[in-house]
């Protein structure tokens, strides 16, 4: 039961951090600036599946790994973003990416 709790908490952290980076108004200016300097990195910061992968990877390396493998954690994070509606823009309901 403790593993399920840890996975759920980790998934919510991944979803929250990724949503803040990819869709929030707070990060709008940095996203635009980075996109103007590097289109590849700009795409990474607007794609919730791509960003979720890297957020999951960083969380598993810095805080805790839910599976014991950072790459698999990152894949799980990307799947979580897909399953939790990460491809839908919450502000206008339009499909992204």
Give a topology summary:
Blueprint: H1 2-23, H2 28-37, H3 39-46, H4 48-62, H5 70-83
Helix pairs in contact: 1-4, 2-3, 4-5
Q: Which labels suit this protein?
A:
5 helices; mainly alpha; 97 residues
How much of the residues is beta strand, in percent?
under 5%
Overall average residue pLDDT: 82
> How large is the count of helical segments?
5
Order of helix and strand elements from N to C terminus: HHHHH
Structural class estimated from helices and strands:
mainly alpha
Task: Write up what this structure looks like.
- This protein is mainly α.
- 71% of the residues lie in helices and 0% in strands.
- The chain has five helices and no strands.
- It has helices at 2-23, 28-37, 39-46, 48-62, 70-83.
- The longest helix is centred in the first third of the chain and has 22 residues, at 2-23.
- The radius of gyration is 14 Å and the shape is elongated.
- It starts with a helix and ends in a 14-residue tail after the last helix.
């Amino acid at each position: 039961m403790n593993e399920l709790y840890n996975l759920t908490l980790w998934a919510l952290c991944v979803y929250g951090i990724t949503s803040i980076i990819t869709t929030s108004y707070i990060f709008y200016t940095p996203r635009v600036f980075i996109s103007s300097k590097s289109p590849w990195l700009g795409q990474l910061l607007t794609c919730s599946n791509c960003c979720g992968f890297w957020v999951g990877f960083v969380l598993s390396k810095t805080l805790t790994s839910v599976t014991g493998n950072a790459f698999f954690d990152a894949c799980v994070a990307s799947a979580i973003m897909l399953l939790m509606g990460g491809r839908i823009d919450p502000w206008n309901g339009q499909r992204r990416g």
